[in-house]
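Lecture 7, part 2: worked example. A protein chain together with nicotinamide-adenine-dinucleotide.
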Amino acid sequence: MSYQEKQMDRRKFLTTSANAAIIAPMIMGRGPFRFAPSGKPKKYCLVGTGTRGISMWGHRLVQNYGDVVEFVGLCDRNPGRLENAKRYMGIDVPVYLDTEFDRMIRERKPDTVIVTTTDCFHAKYICRAMELGCDVITEKPMATDEKMCQDIIDTEKRTGRHVRVTFNYRYNPEAEKIAEILNSGELGQVTSVDFNYFLNTDHGASYFRRWHGFKQYGGSLWVHKATHHFDLLNWWLGAEPMEVNAHGDLRKYGWNSPFRGKNCRTCPHTSKCDYYWDITQNDYSMRLYVDNEKYDGYLRDACLFREQINIWDTMSANIRYHNDILLTYSLNCFMPYEGYQVGFNCSNGRLDVRVYHSQPWEQKALSDFRVSPLFSESRTFSLSESEEHTAGKGGHWGADDKMQNMIFRNTADPMEQTAGVRAGSMSIIVGIAARRSIEWERTVQVDELLKA
Ligand SMILES: NC(=O)c1ccc[n+]([C@@H]2O[C@H](COP(=O)([O-])OP(=O)(O)OC[C@H]3O[C@@H](n4cnc5c(N)ncnc54)[C@H](O)[C@@H]3O)[C@@H](O)[C@H]2O)c1
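Predicted complex, written out as structure tokens:
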């Protein structure tokens, strides 16, 4: 089938009445969720008691949602981190090793399992939890390759259980403002998008110190990190990806350094390494990771110049969406600042946005917007710390609170920010296709990887 025919076929699939009724809300992220209204606490088990598990999905829930959330079990492959989780979360519940996951579900009978393990194990727990009769809340990325993704789609259909994917970036004030401007129709239809994401030498480098530096664990940053960006783009555009062509290089980390060690604590090169990080100065990381190295050998301060690192730090891609929008995307991981710039080229003008997450200069505004209609004056404005960013409390400028209120208190979802398996799949599949495009040295069609 030719490209044009494929495109027509895809459009037909998405717009026929029966499919449109199911898919349109799912493109936007609304799935048929059945989370009980507040009142009686629901029972939760948490699998993956690393930093994200015990903080965002652990301590935070105990503190803020104790009336509707009751933890009944914790699971991890590291027994030391399980004990640390109980202390940190301030709960006393039975703990289970990874090999005892089924027993935990049978004994503790949770309504919902929260999945916050290393990325490559998400799919295994998501599917098994559904098979054992539970709903699931999972951290991004929902899965790390196309087979795992298809397994989740099929298991959800087969079991009738539901998966919620926690795309907290959708709730950031900039993300919401962009959605609002695009949805207002002021600039007409989006025809193409230019999106550049910058990771700095602190946060960006941190991915290369841990399991994220290996495709087999995080699917590469095309999946682990860019899933956030592709989800935003899919959500903003109300579109599904069709075709991906990508390139990637490793230019700074991994084998690029003339020297390397095993980890920072034991390294003989600390005085000349710009990336030296002394984990012993951080009590939280010492308790969570260093104290528990003896169980699994997980070094949180591993050398980011390890020769085995097999992901990319310099990436670009071209993506075509089902509704003919073209996306030019890049992700660079050793920049002097962190954030993104995005430009929407529209039939009646252009929207430019620059978002500042971290930079070495004093930066008052956290984002700058320019709305430029064709043939009339443009206007500019900024979102600042003092206004929208403090409207909500808590992490990520109020985004985490907003998302958790929707999940645990069923607050209204007027912008359709709730994401399920369809949105989870459509975001990771762009990154998975990009990774395959580099590995196979050709353009990849999304429907080569996933059944519609
Ligand atoms: N949405 C966000 O902004 C955001 C931010 C940070 C992390 N995350 C996600 O949260 C998840 C956890 O990240 P993290 O930073 O806490 O990592 P981490 O390394 O601190 O924790 C991972 C935990 O999973 C455990 N684990 C590994 N394999 C396991 C297995 N097979 N069975 C059970 N437990 C296993 C490890 O022992 C560890 O305790 C990741 O999927 C990551 O993508 C999301």
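Residues 1-36 have pLDDT under 50 and may be disordered. Residues 201 and 334 are 5 Å apart (CA to CA). Keep this in mind for problem set question 3.
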